[in-house]
Amino acid sequence: MLVVSKGLVPPLGTTPSAWVSERVRARAAAWLGPREALDSDLRRQLAEVLYHGDLRVEATGDMLGAELAACAKNAAALASAAAASRGANGGSAAGRVFHEIHRLALAGGGRSETFARLAGAGDLVATAVAEGSRNRRAGELLGSGVPPPHLEGILGQTAESLATVPLLDLAFEREGIDAPVTGGLREVL
Known about the structure:
Helix content: 55-70%
Order of helices and strands: EHEEHEHHHHHHHH
Oligomer: single chain
Distance between the termini: 34 Å
Low-confidence stretches: none
CATH topology of the largest domain: N-(1-d-carboxylethyl)-l-norvaline Dehydrogenase, domain 2
Radius of gyration: 16 Å
CATH class of the largest domain: Mainly Alpha
């Protein structure tokens, strides 16, 4: 089973691969995110198929870490742009959100190296600096005072962080992890 959704699944904030694995009988599950694909045999097979389609992937066995790293980069880009738009240190906001979600991944068995590689830090940098980034743009609008319910209408597309941040806050609560910056971002939303 190949899961190609990112973010978290409401109402509990479950990762997409966990949600699908609970509902679908399959020999193996893999998650294809912006930068990484996952599970041993299936990982090798997918990498080969994607390679022949001129797509390059970085494979890992840390599906939870990769999925939460994708959430982290979107939430961190939102926080960074919102803070910077208000004259605050956007890098600090991004780093703290990213660190909080990294702790959530570690609590669930994720690995630090996943956050340090392309699925995490690499994708965070790409998302935070890309002028076309939906999550960055949502943060800029939020920081300039646009009310949260109007953000996606103005963007004309989905910014995953807007739905993911509240679900991350639930996951932190479930795991007993203090995440004040992500929690504050949820309150703003």
